[in-house]
Amino acid sequence: MREVYFIKQNKEKWLGIEQVIQGKIKKNPDDLSSLYINLINDLSFAQTYYPKSNTTVYLNHLSSQIFQKIYKTKRVEENRMLYFFKTEVPLLVYQYRRYLLYAFVFFILFTSMGVLSAIYDKDFANIILGESYVNTTIENIKAGNAVGVYQSGSTWGSTIGITLNNIGVGAKLYIYGIFGGVGSLYALLTNSVMLGSFQYFFYDYGALKDSARGIWLHGVFEIFAMVVEAMCGLILGTSILFPKTLSRFESLKIGLKDSFKIFLSTIPFTVCAGIIEGYVTRHALKMPEFLNLIIIFGCLMIIGFYYFVYPFIVNKKMNNNLTITKDAVL
Protein backbone atom coordinates (compact mmCIF):
# COMPACT_ATOMS: atom_id res chain seq x y z
CA MET A 1 0.00 0.00 0.00
CA ARG A 2 1.31 3.44 -0.88
CA GLU A 3 1.97 5.71 2.09
CA VAL A 4 -0.35 8.46 0.82
CA TYR A 5 -3.26 6.03 0.66
CA PHE A 6 -2.37 4.61 4.09
CA ILE A 7 -2.50 8.12 5.59
CA LYS A 8 -5.74 8.99 3.81
CA GLN A 9 -7.35 5.74 4.97
CA ASN A 10 -6.50 6.28 8.65
CA LYS A 11 -6.28 10.06 9.01
CA GLU A 12 -9.71 10.53 10.61
CA LYS A 13 -9.04 7.75 13.13
CA TRP A 14 -5.72 9.29 14.15
CA LEU A 15 -7.24 12.75 14.50
CA GLY A 16 -9.93 11.21 16.68
CA ILE A 17 -7.25 9.69 18.91
CA GLU A 18 -5.64 13.13 19.20
CA GLN A 19 -9.01 14.45 20.42
CA VAL A 20 -9.10 11.71 23.06
CA ILE A 21 -5.55 12.51 24.22
CA GLN A 22 -6.41 16.21 24.51
CA GLY A 23 -9.50 15.33 26.59
CA LYS A 24 -12.02 16.62 24.06
CA ILE A 25 -13.52 13.14 23.71
CA LYS A 26 -14.03 10.97 26.78
CA LYS A 27 -13.36 7.22 26.62
CA ASN A 28 -13.55 4.52 29.27
CA PRO A 29 -10.44 2.37 29.96
CA ASP A 30 -11.64 -0.50 27.73
CA ASP A 31 -12.19 1.82 24.77
CA LEU A 32 -8.78 3.39 25.35
CA SER A 33 -7.16 -0.05 25.26
CA SER A 34 -8.94 -0.85 21.98
CA LEU A 35 -7.73 2.41 20.47
CA TYR A 36 -4.20 1.65 21.63
CA ILE A 37 -4.19 -1.85 20.11
CA ASN A 38 -5.57 -0.48 16.84
CA LEU A 39 -2.93 2.23 16.79
CA ILE A 40 -0.16 -0.29 17.53
CA ASN A 41 -1.24 -2.25 14.48
CA ASP A 42 -0.94 0.90 12.33
CA LEU A 43 2.47 1.63 13.86
CA SER A 44 3.65 -1.92 13.14
CA PHE A 45 2.54 -1.59 9.52
CA ALA A 46 4.27 1.79 9.18
CA GLN A 47 7.50 0.48 10.74
CA THR A 48 7.51 -2.39 8.24
CA TYR A 49 6.77 -0.48 5.04
CA TYR A 50 7.73 3.14 5.84
CA PRO A 51 10.47 2.80 8.50
CA LYS A 52 12.06 6.22 7.91
CA SER A 53 8.85 8.13 7.27
CA ASN A 54 7.43 10.98 9.36
CA THR A 55 4.26 8.92 9.55
CA THR A 56 6.09 6.31 11.62
CA VAL A 57 7.49 9.00 13.94
CA TYR A 58 4.01 10.51 14.31
CA LEU A 59 2.36 7.16 15.10
CA ASN A 60 5.07 6.30 17.62
CA HIS A 61 4.48 9.62 19.40
CA LEU A 62 0.71 9.09 19.29
CA SER A 63 1.11 5.58 20.71
CA SER A 64 3.22 6.94 23.55
CA GLN A 65 0.60 9.58 24.36
CA ILE A 66 -2.35 7.19 24.39
CA PHE A 67 -0.34 4.71 26.48
CA GLN A 68 0.34 7.41 29.05
CA LYS A 69 -3.37 8.21 29.16
CA ILE A 70 -4.23 4.55 29.77
CA TYR A 71 -1.54 4.30 32.45
CA LYS A 72 -2.74 7.52 34.06
CA THR A 73 -6.36 6.35 34.09
CA LYS A 74 -5.43 3.12 35.87
CA ARG A 75 -3.11 4.81 38.36
CA VAL A 76 -5.56 7.61 39.18
CA GLU A 77 -8.05 5.02 40.34
CA GLU A 78 -5.50 3.93 42.97
CA ASN A 79 -4.22 7.25 44.35
CA ARG A 80 -4.64 10.52 42.49
CA MET A 81 -2.34 12.55 44.74
CA LEU A 82 0.46 9.98 44.63
CA TYR A 83 0.20 9.69 40.86
CA PHE A 84 0.30 13.48 40.50
CA PHE A 85 3.64 13.90 42.29
CA LYS A 86 5.15 10.53 41.41
CA THR A 87 4.40 10.39 37.68
CA GLU A 88 2.40 13.26 36.19
CA VAL A 89 4.56 16.19 37.29
CA PRO A 90 7.91 14.48 36.52
CA LEU A 91 6.69 13.66 32.99
CA LEU A 92 5.65 17.28 32.47
CA VAL A 93 9.00 18.54 33.82
CA TYR A 94 10.76 16.19 31.41
CA GLN A 95 8.59 17.41 28.53
CA TYR A 96 9.37 21.07 29.32
CA ARG A 97 12.90 20.50 30.65
CA ARG A 98 14.46 23.11 28.39
CA TYR A 99 12.34 25.79 30.11
CA LEU A 100 13.82 24.76 33.45
CA LEU A 101 17.27 25.21 31.94
CA TYR A 102 16.30 28.64 30.57
CA ALA A 103 14.95 29.69 33.98
CA PHE A 104 18.18 28.68 35.75
CA VAL A 105 20.33 30.46 33.16
CA PHE A 106 18.34 33.67 33.67
CA PHE A 107 18.46 33.20 37.46
CA ILE A 108 22.26 32.93 37.45
CA LEU A 109 22.55 35.90 35.09
CA PHE A 110 20.23 38.11 37.15
CA THR A 111 21.83 37.12 40.46
CA SER A 112 25.25 37.96 39.03
CA MET A 113 23.88 41.36 38.04
CA GLY A 114 22.86 41.91 41.67
CA VAL A 115 26.32 40.99 42.92
CA LEU A 116 28.09 43.24 40.38
CA SER A 117 25.74 46.14 41.13
CA ALA A 118 26.47 45.82 44.86
CA ILE A 119 30.23 45.70 44.17
CA TYR A 120 30.31 48.87 42.08
CA ASP A 121 27.61 50.82 43.95
CA LYS A 122 27.92 50.79 47.74
CA ASP A 123 24.43 52.27 48.13
CA PHE A 124 22.82 49.59 45.98
CA ALA A 125 22.02 47.31 48.95
CA ASN A 126 20.27 50.20 50.72
CA ILE A 127 18.13 50.82 47.64
CA ILE A 128 17.21 47.18 47.11
CA LEU A 129 16.93 45.94 50.70
CA GLY A 130 15.85 49.14 52.41
CA GLU A 131 17.85 51.31 54.80
CA SER A 132 16.04 50.06 57.89
CA TYR A 133 16.84 46.41 57.11
CA VAL A 134 20.44 47.21 56.21
CA ASN A 135 21.05 49.23 59.38
CA THR A 136 19.46 46.59 61.60
CA THR A 137 21.48 43.81 59.98
CA ILE A 138 24.73 45.78 60.33
CA GLU A 139 24.07 46.10 64.05
CA ASN A 140 23.34 42.37 64.25
CA ILE A 141 26.60 41.55 62.44
CA LYS A 142 28.57 43.74 64.81
CA ALA A 143 26.92 41.88 67.69
CA GLY A 144 28.01 38.56 66.17
CA ASN A 145 24.49 37.55 65.17
CA ALA A 146 24.22 37.82 61.38
CA VAL A 147 20.86 36.01 61.29
CA GLY A 148 19.32 38.06 64.08
CA VAL A 149 16.57 39.35 61.77
CA TYR A 150 15.14 35.81 61.64
CA GLN A 151 14.80 35.62 65.43
CA SER A 152 12.04 38.20 65.78
CA GLY A 153 8.42 37.20 66.29
CA SER A 154 6.92 33.87 67.29
CA THR A 155 7.82 30.68 65.47
CA TRP A 156 4.32 29.80 64.26
CA GLY A 157 3.46 33.41 63.40
CA SER A 158 6.66 33.83 61.39
CA THR A 159 6.07 30.52 59.63
CA ILE A 160 2.56 31.44 58.49
CA GLY A 161 3.54 34.95 57.38
CA ILE A 162 6.68 33.80 55.56
CA THR A 163 4.90 30.91 53.83
CA LEU A 164 2.01 33.06 52.59
CA ASN A 165 4.45 35.71 51.35
CA ASN A 166 6.57 33.14 49.49
CA ILE A 167 3.50 31.54 47.89
CA GLY A 168 2.45 35.03 46.77
CA VAL A 169 5.87 35.68 45.23
CA GLY A 170 5.75 32.32 43.48
CA ALA A 171 2.26 33.02 42.15
CA LYS A 172 3.49 36.31 40.65
CA LEU A 173 6.45 34.57 39.01
CA TYR A 174 3.99 32.17 37.40
CA ILE A 175 0.97 34.36 36.60
CA TYR A 176 3.06 37.18 35.12
CA GLY A 177 4.04 34.67 32.43
CA ILE A 178 0.73 35.51 30.73
CA PHE A 179 2.55 38.55 29.30
CA GLY A 180 4.49 36.41 26.86
CA GLY A 181 6.86 35.19 29.58
CA VAL A 182 8.37 38.68 29.94
CA GLY A 183 6.49 39.28 33.19
CA SER A 184 7.96 36.15 34.75
CA LEU A 185 11.46 37.18 33.69
CA TYR A 186 10.93 40.63 35.24
CA ALA A 187 9.73 39.07 38.52
CA LEU A 188 12.71 36.70 38.45
CA LEU A 189 15.01 39.67 37.74
CA THR A 190 13.83 41.65 40.79
CA ASN A 191 14.10 38.68 43.15
CA SER A 192 17.45 37.46 41.78
CA VAL A 193 19.06 40.91 41.88
CA MET A 194 17.87 41.23 45.47
CA LEU A 195 19.42 37.84 46.31
CA GLY A 196 22.74 38.76 44.67
CA SER A 197 23.02 42.12 46.41
CA PHE A 198 21.85 40.53 49.68
CA GLN A 199 24.61 37.92 49.66
CA TYR A 200 27.30 40.42 48.66
CA PHE A 201 26.15 42.72 51.45
CA PHE A 202 27.05 40.03 54.01
CA TYR A 203 30.31 39.31 52.20
CA ASP A 204 31.21 42.99 52.33
CA TYR A 205 30.74 43.00 56.10
CA GLY A 206 32.66 39.75 56.62
CA ALA A 207 29.61 37.71 57.59
CA LEU A 208 29.00 35.63 54.45
CA LYS A 209 29.69 32.29 56.17
CA ASP A 210 27.37 32.98 59.10
CA SER A 211 24.64 34.30 56.82
CA ALA A 212 24.92 31.30 54.52
CA ARG A 213 24.60 28.91 57.48
CA GLY A 214 21.23 30.50 58.23
CA ILE A 215 19.81 31.77 54.97
CA TRP A 216 20.34 28.63 52.92
CA LEU A 217 18.70 26.38 55.50
CA HIS A 218 15.38 27.56 54.06
CA GLY A 219 16.79 29.23 50.96
CA VAL A 220 17.47 26.03 49.01
CA PHE A 221 13.79 25.07 48.81
CA GLU A 222 12.63 28.68 48.51
CA ILE A 223 15.00 29.78 45.74
CA PHE A 224 14.85 26.53 43.76
CA ALA A 225 11.04 26.68 43.87
CA MET A 226 11.21 30.29 42.69
CA VAL A 227 13.18 29.23 39.60
CA VAL A 228 10.69 26.42 38.85
CA GLU A 229 7.83 28.92 39.19
CA ALA A 230 9.58 31.16 36.67
CA MET A 231 9.85 28.10 34.42
CA CYS A 232 6.06 27.72 34.67
CA GLY A 233 5.63 31.35 33.65
CA LEU A 234 7.84 30.79 30.60
CA ILE A 235 5.77 27.75 29.60
CA LEU A 236 2.61 29.81 29.91
CA GLY A 237 4.05 32.71 27.92
CA THR A 238 5.48 30.66 25.07
CA SER A 239 2.20 28.74 24.70
CA ILE A 240 0.70 32.08 23.65
CA LEU A 241 3.60 33.30 21.51
CA PHE A 242 4.37 30.00 19.77
CA PRO A 243 1.19 27.91 19.29
CA LYS A 244 2.82 25.81 16.54
CA THR A 245 0.14 23.82 14.67
CA LEU A 246 -2.55 24.54 17.29
CA SER A 247 -4.80 27.55 17.49
CA ARG A 248 -3.52 30.15 19.94
CA PHE A 249 -6.41 29.45 22.31
CA GLU A 250 -5.86 25.67 22.27
CA SER A 251 -2.13 26.17 22.83
CA LEU A 252 -2.87 28.48 25.77
CA LYS A 253 -5.21 25.91 27.34
CA ILE A 254 -2.56 23.19 27.15
CA GLY A 255 0.19 25.52 28.37
CA LEU A 256 -1.97 26.77 31.25
CA LYS A 257 -2.93 23.25 32.35
CA ASP A 258 0.61 21.85 32.18
CA SER A 259 2.32 24.84 33.77
CA PHE A 260 -0.23 25.03 36.58
CA LYS A 261 0.40 21.39 37.49
CA ILE A 262 4.15 22.02 37.70
CA PHE A 263 3.49 25.18 39.74
CA LEU A 264 1.39 23.21 42.23
CA SER A 265 4.31 20.82 42.73
CA THR A 266 6.38 23.70 44.16
CA ILE A 267 3.90 24.45 46.97
CA PRO A 268 5.07 21.66 49.33
CA PHE A 269 8.66 22.88 48.96
CA THR A 270 7.60 26.47 49.62
CA VAL A 271 5.68 25.40 52.73
CA CYS A 272 8.68 23.40 53.98
CA ALA A 273 10.90 26.45 53.39
CA GLY A 274 8.53 28.56 55.50
CA ILE A 275 8.56 26.01 58.33
CA ILE A 276 12.36 25.81 58.28
CA GLU A 277 12.68 29.60 58.24
CA GLY A 278 10.21 30.03 61.08
CA TYR A 279 11.47 27.25 63.36
CA VAL A 280 15.07 26.39 62.40
CA THR A 281 16.83 29.39 60.84
CA ARG A 282 16.61 31.39 64.08
CA HIS A 283 18.87 28.76 65.70
CA ALA A 284 21.32 28.58 62.77
CA LEU A 285 24.39 29.94 64.57
CA LYS A 286 23.76 27.86 67.71
CA MET A 287 23.58 24.62 65.75
CA PRO A 288 26.69 22.50 65.03
CA GLU A 289 28.02 23.50 61.63
CA PHE A 290 27.79 19.93 60.30
CA LEU A 291 24.05 19.97 61.06
CA ASN A 292 23.62 23.14 59.00
CA LEU A 293 25.42 21.47 56.12
CA ILE A 294 23.36 18.29 56.40
CA ILE A 295 20.11 20.25 56.19
CA ILE A 296 21.30 22.53 53.37
CA PHE A 297 22.74 19.80 51.16
CA GLY A 298 19.95 17.40 52.10
CA CYS A 299 17.37 19.91 50.86
CA LEU A 300 19.43 20.52 47.72
CA MET A 301 19.63 16.79 46.97
CA ILE A 302 15.88 16.30 47.48
CA ILE A 303 14.64 19.14 45.29
CA GLY A 304 17.46 18.77 42.75
CA PHE A 305 16.71 15.07 42.36
CA TYR A 306 12.98 15.69 41.98
CA TYR A 307 13.25 18.28 39.21
CA PHE A 308 16.53 17.34 37.49
CA VAL A 309 16.99 13.57 37.83
CA TYR A 310 13.68 11.91 38.63
CA PRO A 311 11.88 13.17 35.47
CA PHE A 312 14.41 11.27 33.32
CA ILE A 313 13.89 8.12 35.40
CA VAL A 314 10.09 8.30 35.06
CA ASN A 315 10.30 9.03 31.32
CA LYS A 316 12.65 6.08 30.77
CA LYS A 317 10.37 3.79 32.78
CA MET A 318 7.36 4.95 30.77
CA ASN A 319 9.14 4.31 27.48
CA ASN A 320 10.23 0.86 28.66
CA ASN A 321 6.64 0.02 29.60
CA LEU A 322 5.52 1.26 26.19
CA THR A 323 8.08 -0.93 24.44
CA ILE A 324 7.08 -4.00 26.45
CA THR A 325 3.41 -3.39 25.73
CA LYS A 326 4.12 -2.95 22.01
CA ASP A 327 6.04 -6.21 21.90
CA ALA A 328 3.26 -8.03 23.73
CA VAL A 329 0.61 -6.70 21.34
CA LEU A 330 2.68 -7.33 18.21
Query: Major sheet, described briefly?
Result: none
Calculate Rg over CA atoms.
Answer: 25 Å
The number of helical segments is: 12
Tally of extended strands?
0
Mean pLDDT: 86
- Termini separation: 20 Å
Low-confidence runs: none
What general outline do the C-alpha atoms trace?
elongated
Q: In what range is the share of β-strand residues? A: under 5%
H and E string: HHHHHHHHHHHH
Question: How much helicity do the residues have?
Answer: over 70%
Secondary structural class:
mainly alpha
Protein name: Stage II sporulation protein M
InterPro entries: SpoIIM-like
Pfam family, one: SpoIIM
Keywords: Membrane, Transmembrane, Transmembrane helix
Give a description of the structure:
The protein is an all-alpha fold and 330 residues long. 83% of the residues lie in helices and 0% in strands. It has 12 helices and no strands. The chain starts with a helix and ends with a helix. The model has no long low-confidence stretch (mean pLDDT 86). Keywords: Membrane, Transmembrane, Transmembrane helix. This is Stage II sporulation protein M. It comes from Chryseobacterium edaphi. InterPro entries: SpoIIM-like.
Task: Please write out the topology.
Blueprint: H1 3-21, H2 29-49, H3 54-78, H4 80-95, H5 97-120, H6 124-129, H7 131-142, H8 155-175, H9 182-204, H10 208-241, H11 248-279, H12 289-329
Helix pairs in contact: 1-3, 2-3, 3-4, 4-11, 4-12, 5-9, 5-10, 8-9, 8-10, 8-11, 9-10, 10-11, 10-12
Transmembrane segments: 99-120, 173-203, 215-242, 262-281, 293-313
Protein name: Stage II sporulation protein M
Keywords: Membrane, Transmembrane, Transmembrane helix
